[in-house]
Amino acid sequence: MIRLHHSNSSAAMAPHIVLEELGLPFELVPVDTATGAHRQAPYLRLNPNGVIPTLEDGELVLYETVAILMHLADTHPEGGLLPAMGTPERAQAMKWLIWSTNTLQATLIAYFYPERWAPDHPAEVKATVQARIRPMLQQLDEVLADGRPWFMGAAFSLVDVMVFMLSRWTRHFDDHPARGFPHLGPYLQRVLARPAVQRVFAREGLQPFV
Ligand SMILES: N[C@@H](CCC(=O)N[C@@H](CS)C(=O)NCC(=O)O)C(=O)O
């Protein structure tokens, strides 16, 4: 049985969506961040970074959201969540997955923990993050401008899961949340409408708001 160490409305949303998209049996293991469970020894033994998510799949213990997504897609190729190995489409999907986590997600994290960057200036950190995120959202919007249904084209993929989750993290931005971009906004509604995403929102107790 696959076990996903999870908290609601966190980066665990991405593997949660993928598990639902693939229709796999899995167990959600709640990690209570309010009490700091992610920084205590039992969880740190699984993930020494003390961040969520972590996946257990048999003997395999895996952290890093995108690595978890790729593992699930690779072990369930029938789900078609990644293009075939060795193709230009696969290379582009890898590019976007890596960009999503090492550029978009890494920048967004400072918005949620601004005191870690400048303890005395959290408002300035949040403002800086929002300014830096804006061209990244613009970059996503430009890809979608040709009217493609999903980010990589005709097929829904792991890239959609990351773009959707991280776009949602901008929902409380002061001026330019992702949903306000002309192509990104309707696209996010398409992802939100997927039955697997709806099940995740219901289970995590989230409002249908991106
Ligand atoms: N690069 C990691 C980042 C994960 C991450 O930052 N998770 C957040 C939740 S969205 C977390 O656990 N934060 C708790 C903390 O930093 O104290 C990944 O993608 O798995």
From TrEMBL:
<dbReference type="InterPro" id="IPR010987">
    <property type="entry name" value="Glutathione-S-Trfase_C-like"/>
</dbReference>
<feature type="domain" description="GST N-terminal">
    <location>
        <begin position="1"/>
        <end position="80"/>
    </location>
</feature>
<dbReference type="Pfam" id="PF00043">
    <property type="entry name" value="GST_C"/>
</dbReference>
<dbReference type="InterPro" id="IPR004046">
    <property type="entry name" value="GST_C"/>
</dbReference>
<dbReference type="Pfam" id="PF02798">
    <property type="entry name" value="GST_N"/>
</dbReference>
<dbReference type="InterPro" id="IPR040079">
    <property type="entry name" value="Glutathione_S-Trfase"/>
</dbReference>
<protein>
    <submittedName>
        <fullName>Glutathione S-transferase</fullName>
    </submittedName>
</protein>
<keyword id="KW-0808">Transferase</keyword>
<dbReference type="InterPro" id="IPR036282">
    <property type="entry name" value="Glutathione-S-Trfase_C_sf"/>
</dbReference>
<dbReference type="InterPro" id="IPR004045">
    <property type="entry name" value="Glutathione_S-Trfase_N"/>
</dbReference>
<dbReference type="GO" id="GO:0016740">
    <property type="term" value="F:transferase activity"/>
</dbReference>
<dbReference type="InterPro" id="IPR036249">
    <property type="entry name" value="Thioredoxin-like_sf"/>
</dbReference>
<comment type="similarity">
    <text>Belongs to the GST superfamily.</text>
</comment>
<feature type="domain" description="GST C-terminal">
    <location>
        <begin position="86"/>
        <end position="210"/>
    </location>
</feature>
